[in-house]
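re: ur question from earlier - yeah i can do the single chain one, its not a big deal. heres the input i used so u can compare w yours
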Amino acid sequence: MELYEFLTTTTGGKCLFTMLVSMLPIIELRGGVPFGVAVLGLPSSLAFPAAVDTAAFAFWVISSK
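and the output i got, formated as tokens:
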């Protein structure tokens, strides 16, 4: 299975793609949730925790140094 196909067709892949987008400094949480819901078609109950957890993890990693 191709990586792009995995990221756009499976629920786990869509959550992972939302998490990857949420890691980008410019987009972060404000763009991660709409990307997951509008672009990938994830329910907001999955897109929101994926984006929030990733943003919190990224903040924790940056602030711990």
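The chain has a mean pLDDT of 90. not sure if urs matches, ping me
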